[in-house]
Design goal:
single chain; mainly alpha; two-stranded antiparallel sheet; 4 strands; 58% helix; globular
Length: 463
């Protein structure tokens, strides 16, 4: 094996002879015209608009709030928000970049508030800790050799894309805003656009699963993330940057990542359910592994929640039964359970979905619309009141607002897996077809039937 120093030595020895020309001037011109990546990143972190819907967001200010909700004193970081916005408006690049760096420092070093409510709940740091507080039903022994498995999985992928396309155009807005502009949303509000991040990390997971099966680890998944995913946002952006610097899970989920309990893990639980049909424990275990690349504790539990729903959809006969059973597999000692249980209790006390959702809106208003909590509550409300009706579920989850594409995609998968495509109206399916666009490397053009076959084959080969 050639040593590292030998590569470097040969590179120098075999270099072309220097030229006596204007190379230095050309280099200076290129440097002067190169983009200022740190300034551009700082501007995007203080203000951006969601690509699909145009909704405004401030991901870094949301991150400050998130660290505060996790029981840390973020007052020093909050004191920098106003100066940061001043620098942003004045296009003062040195100040804005400097302040952003200082905010990240303050978040990394924020002191714990011992009596904060967050610390009243159990903190889950491993799947074994999670499993010790939950009774998983035995593996149902679903027949993965059946044609039924492929058809259900195909329907799950199709409905997942339907949900993501529906939500991409309306994410980031409140219920009232959506009603004001669209009235009742019962179909796509814009021509379908499949180019989003909703299945991006699931494809990376599937690529790793093809190779390693149920032995896949968080370290392995981290390398597949950076291999297949060109860019990310919030927690995923931080994790990708960490992984590229040699920082692996679980540290990749923590360092420089104030978004570690946001929706990024929750938005990709479906694939873990698909590769563990009818096996709740295995779906949860895989979701923990996958979630730990960029998230912690309640953020990971969010992925488990959706993985359980999709896994159970292969064996449960109706949505109401499935929802109730899955809620029983979320540890009651966790803060995440307090969120989904609050939403469920509001459903039990309401005859219609909107009053239940209004209570959740108020209860979780301190959380960013990309945080796991308000979106988990929206999922519960939509599933409870829609029951087995896909159209009603898409209507409710759309009208709840928040991070609609992530929510709609995950719970739409349940309906495809549970009921197939025969009950899904053509106005959802026809505008999409089987061929979609993604920004995953080598998957820019993706056929959903092929994706379903690959998913099924990977499961069969892994057993």
């Amino acid at each position: 094996m050639k040593r590292a120093w030998e590569y470097c030595y040969e590179l120098t020895q075999n270099a072309k002879k220097p030229k006596n020309d204007s190379a230095i001037e050309r280099w200076a011109e290129r440097l002067a015209s190169a983009p200022d990546h740190n300034y551009e990143k700082a501007r995007k972190h203080f203000h951006s608009n969601v690509t699909g819907s145009g909704a405004p967001e401030s991901v870094l200010v949301g991150g400050i709030a998130s660290v505060g909700s996790m029981g840390y004193d973020v007052s020093k970081a909050e004191a920098l928000i106003e100066p940061a916005y001043k620098a942003y408006k004045e296009e003062n690049a040195p100040d804005l970049v400097r302040i952003r760096a200082q905010i990240m420092f303050e978040l990394e070093n924020a002191p714990k508030i011992p009596d904060h409510p967050y610390w009243n709940y159990k903190q889950y740091n491993s799947f074994s800790e999670y499993e010790s507080d939950v009774d998983f039903p035995a593996d149902a022994g679903y027949d993965i050799a059946s044609d039924d498995f492929e058809e259900r999985t195909y329907a799950g992928w199709v409905t997942q894309v339907i949900g993501s396309v529906l939500g991409t155009a309306i994410e980031g807005y409140t219920t009232d805003m959506l009603y004001d502009v669209f009235g009742e949303i019962t179909s796509y509000v814009n021509p379908p656009q499949t180019y989003n991040d909703d299945i991006t990390y699931e494809i990376a997971f599937l690529e790793a699963f093809k190779e390693y099966g149920y032995d896949v680890t968080a370290d392995i998944l981290a390398t597949y993330w950076v291999g297949f995913v060109p860019s990310g946002w919030s927690a995923e952006e931080a994790a990708l940057a960490n992984i590229m610097q040699g920082i692996r899970p679980p540290k990749s989920a923590v360092i420089g990542n104030p978004w570690r309990e946001w929706i990024g893990a929750q938005m990709k639980g479906a694939i873990c359910g698909m590769v563990a049909p009818g096996n709740y424990r295995e779906a949860a275990r895989l979701a923990w592994i996958d979630g730990s690349v960029a998230h912690v504790n309640n953020g990971i539990i969010g992925e488990i929640f959706n993985a359980l729903l999709v896994s159970g959809a292969y064996i449960e006969p109706d949505v109401a039964t499935l929802l109730k059973k899955v809620l029983g597999m979320i540890p009651k000692e966790s803060e995440y359970y307090s969120v989904v249980n609050f939403a469920y209790q509001q459903c039990l006390m309401s005859s219609e979905w909107l009053p239940a959702w209004r209570a959740c809106e108020e209860k979780f208003k301190e959380y960013n619309w990309i945080h796991a909590y308000p979106n988990a509550a929206a999922e519960v409300v939509a599933l409870y009141f829609a029951g087995d009706d896909f159209n009603k579920c898409m209507n409710i989850i759309a009208m709840c607002g928040q991070d609609v594409d992530c929510n709609a995609a995950q719970i739409a998968t349940i309906y495809g897996v549970m009921f197939g495509l025969s009950d899904i109206d053509s106005h959802w399916i026809d505008p999409i077809g089987d061929d979609i666009k993604t920004y995953v490397r080598t998957y820019e053009d993706l056929n959903l039937r092929d994706l379903a076959k690959a998913t099924v084959e990977a499961v069969r080969n892994a057993v």
